[in-house]
Amino acid sequence: MLISAAAQTIKPVVHVQPLLAKESAAARNVAAAASPDLSEYYAPAQGKQGAELLFALHTIIRTGHVDRGYSQARDELFSEVADTDGDNMVEDLFTGELRGPITGRKDSFAKGFNTEHTWPQSKGATGIAQSDLHHLHPSDIQTNSKRGSFPYGEVAQSEWSVGEGAHQAQLGVDLLGKTVFEPQEAAKGDIARGLLYFYTRYSPSQTGKFTTVNFKHELPTLLKWAAEDPVSDVERLRNNAVQAVQGNRNPFVDHPEFLDAIKFEQLEIK
Ligand SMILES: [Ca+2]
Ligand SMILES: [Ca+2]
């Protein structure tokens, strides 16, 4: 089922108009994604595990992280980060629906998109974290309002849904009776790695609103999703695009094995 879900996410490239400059940039990005030399970037994490590795990664990804403000971040999201193939068509995180042409945040509103904070603003995505592109995604405005600030999870009893088959997103209760939001199959690992990044980036330097109330409930599901929906080439390109504008990377896209080495399930999540 997961293989077919992944296959369905491969969409034909729609060339609205010849965009030679962007296409050659995309081609360079593909080459970079194939063999990025990140050994120096991750050198301080080498040989570490558990909480020690988590803190080493925190220090690496905090260093050089530039806050460009929320408006600029959303323009970067819609024009570059969520459009790594450069065709001006952008995907809804929750169902995979493609919309465009979109070249910035103003176009995105006109196409019914807004910006999903996978770590909700009400749970601590404020300040520099509000505009941290590693956890921001284009999303349909109505689906995003259904998600609200509920935790992500696997719905056992559905109350609302949109999309079909592997592209369905739904809201409902999980096996523990908690209301959760479940996205399309292809987004599950991406969301998981973004939230695990967010915890690693911000938990040691918490601000007033920061809370792990969602994250604690989500964690077992996030680790499951990260394993079931492995890192894709699009995610690698996205990671490069985010680094280009905000100066830091998602370690769990570059090195999924860090998740096993940290042993999140054995950490005390405060
Ligand atoms: Ca695109
Ligand atoms: Ca994926």
How would you describe the overall organization of this protein?
The protein is an alpha+beta fold and 270 residues long. It has one domain (38-266). It is 43% helix and 11% strand. The chain contains 11 helices and 7 strands. It has helices spanning 2-8, 20-34, 50-62, 70-81, 105-110, 141-147, 188-202, 213-228, 233-246, 251-254, 257-262, and strands spanning 90-91, 98-99, 113-117, 136-140, 157-162, 169-173, 179-182. The strands form 3 sheets. It has a 3-stranded antiparallel beta sheet with strand order 5-6-7, covered by helices on one side. Strands 1-2 form a two-stranded antiparallel ribbon. Strands 3-4 form a two-stranded antiparallel sheet. A hairpin with a 5-residue loop joins strand 6 (169-173) and strand 7. The model is unreliable at 1-25 (pLDDT under 50). Bound molecules: calcium ion (2 copies). One calcium ion binds at residues 186, 189-190, 229, 232.
